[in-house]
Write a structure and sequence with these properties.
alpha/beta, Rossmann fold, 6-stranded mixed β-sheet, 10 strands
Length: 293
């Protein structure tokens, strides 16, 4: 076995151990509550038993028989989960603990393991400013490990980002309603129209990945800053307070604009930084969705 392949499999195993444990202990129950049972088919009414959820009580039947009765539903169990993964140049940015790309890989793995534990299919679309690769949805651990291997080892052809193209492709290629997670920094030309169309047909969740230093420059004097998508280098004087303030204001504006786009499109979203653990933002998102249902 080639050294590269050995290294790759080691990395896959490491990510599997970490993320599988997380999805076992933390996420699979939450995932089930937050995403499953979108389509509910009514089956029957039966007498209330201890442990039944209060919200399933059929108040009309209860009033008629003077005894609590609950509605029983059959869940349309199986979901398809699509991961839309931004593999553009800006995903290589990361200064604190890890790059955005590393963070995205782990998040994808956690979501994928949570999905297969709930018997769902998982597929991936890798995109830059074009569709780089499409892995059709399938079930099973072997499929997930293949996805993780691709996530670690994937080399995109292009460095730009265009979410509109990715969303358009996703809407056309996945026919049946699915749950889709977009993992990106969302630094892209306008994509609101495509996002609205995708979210009408599917259930779209945005996971915005960011690095703290994209939002705030530390005072490091004169530094070269490279745009990962264009390859251009600009010199920035971080010692100048006005430069730092302008940079921060610009980042805040960008974030606020993105928040508006998500809320206008009806998309659930959360931001996850390379400096923090993704467990808390993900759990908060799942809980928020549970409450909304």
């Amino acid at each position: 076995m080639a050294k590269d392949t050995k290294e790759l499999l080691k990395k896959v195993r490491k990510i599997e151990i970490k993320t599988r444990g997380l999805s076992n202990h933390l996420f699979s129950g939450e995932y089930h509550s937050a995403f499953k049972g979108r389509g509910m088919a009514f089956r029957e009414v039966r007498e209330y038993q201890i442990g039944d959820e209060i919200r399933t009580i059929d108040w009309n039947v209860t009033a008629r028989f003077n005894h609590p009765y609950v509605k029983v539903f059959d869940e349309e169990r199986e979901l398809t989960v699509m991961l839309l993964m931004d593999v553009s140049g800006s995903e290589n940015f990361g200064t604190i603990n890890q790059q955005k790309q590393d963070l995205a890989t782990e998040l994808c793995a956690v979501l994928a393991f949570s999905a297969i534990q709930n018997n769902d299919k998982v597929g991936v679309i890798f995109f830059s400013d074009k569709i780089e690769k499409f892995i059709p949805p399938k079930k099973g651990r072997g499929h997930i490990l293949m996805i993780i291997r691709e996530l670690i080892d994937f080399k995109p052809e292009n460095t730009g980002t265009d979410l509109g193209i990715a969303l358009k492709y996703f809407t056309s290629v996945i026919k049946k309603k699915c749950t889709a997670f977009i993992l990106s920094d969302f630094m892209s030309p306008a994509f609101e129209t495509e996002l609205k169309i995708a979210n009408k047909k599917h259930d779209v969740i945005a996971l915005r990945l960011y690095d703290r230093h994209e939002e705030e420059f530390p005072d490091l004097g004169l530094i070269p800053v490279k745009d990962e998508e264009t390859g251009q280098i600009a010199w920035v004087n971080t010692g100048d307070k006005n430069v730092r303030n302008a940079y921060r204001a610009d980042a805040l504006r960008r974030t606020a604009k993105l928040k508006d786009v998500f809320s206008r499109s009806g998309v659930d979203a959360t931001s996850i930084g390379t400096h923090e653990t993704y467990v808390k933002p993900l759990m908060t998102l799942f809980k928020k969705r549970e409450r909304k249902r």
